[in-house]
Amino acid sequence: MIAFSCFDDKKYRVWLLFLFPDFAQNDPMQSVDRTGAAPLRQKGRALGRRARSAEAQRLSRAQRLYDEGTFAAADTLYGQILIRNPAHLAALRGRAAALTSLSEMARTDRNGKLVDDLNAVADQCYARGLYAAAQDCYQRVLELAPDRCDAVWGIAECHAAQDEVDRAITWYRRYLDFVPDEPEALHMLAALGDRPPPGRASDGYVAAYFDRFAEDFDRQLVDELDYQAPQLLYDAVAPCINEVGLQLDILDLGCGTGLCGCLFRRHANRLDGADLSPVMLEHARERGVYDTLTAGEISTHLMGLPHQYDVLIAGDVLAYFGRLSGLFRGVARAAREGALFAFSVESQRRSGYRLTPSGRYTHGRRYITRLAAAAGLREVSVTREQLRYEYGEPVMGDIWVFEKLPV
Ligand SMILES: C[S@@+](CC[C@H](N)C(=O)[O-])C[C@H]1O[C@@H](n2cnc3c(N)ncnc32)[C@H](O)[C@@H]1O
Known about the structure:
By secondary structure, the protein is an alpha/beta fold. Helices cover 55% and strands 17% of the residues.
């Protein structure tokens, strides 16, 4: 049994209590009480209460200072709360308001500190869904420093997140005035219907987007969005490969940080990964489960491979592909006879595929079976599953398994 130390496992225990309320009755800490942990725990609770009440006092003092127009002091106090608790939304909103007010009084910002603070707070507000506060701060940034294109990008993203399509288009276009042909802005303009959708997300878009996202990918996807694709793919493939019981050559297409690789490693004689994002690959490398990792575009990678695989997987990768013919042909080329190809897609009822305003593609089932058959792949299974959450809503998709037919 896991030995719970007094405080090291506190977070873990809070999670267990959240997930399994009954856990309290079987709390392993009870057995530790005999060794004198109970007074420590009480002390911990008292400290927690004191910290919360100090935080509440600091918050009301900050609000008072703000109401009195002492914006710099209010900003400092809100900032102190956020250092201890970055997810404190009232403090974040308060800091955004204090900085906005400060910036309204400042005609210039010689050393750029105010602009940097405003932009950083705007980014934090955006990340926590406080779009109105984020927009106010980005606007102030632009008034003080009209060449800050990151604030232009921020405003575009706020509008896009709130489905304000026309405004988002205006601001993404404005961003292109600063950075012509920037791949992320071009992709978002296509996703919002301002230009024809490409057959797949460009290499530049995928690399830039996931390089930026990589540091936070596992935390956001697994902890916050309940990302299930790797486990669902594993569950779909495991019955077939357990039966065979062999050590297999496995290729993880668009391996990202290696969440799929971790699950499939136990069946692998050889496990290779390929991805366009160097920073995602760095994280995959740190896991130490892959034999090789290749930086590159997967359709091209598949066409140039010197050997074939028994299992090919692609977890949440086809969301960055519209047209699938080239990818499926590449998979068929790199798959041994009888090999399995498992992947997830975000589904749509209509046939064909569509680039949605989220910047990801959805696919209809008929489209997938038609193209797979043309590439020499036979359907083994398809199930409708909840892949993850987005803005609090479940994202539904299909988990497909195909088998390579004899040529
Ligand atoms: C949402 S992540 C999923 C990562 C991983 N498969 C998982 O399930 O955790 C999508 C990954 O696909 C990669 N990707 C998307 N399109 C690609 C392409 N055309 N070639 C190579 N990698 C691609 C991205 O860089 C990103 O790492």
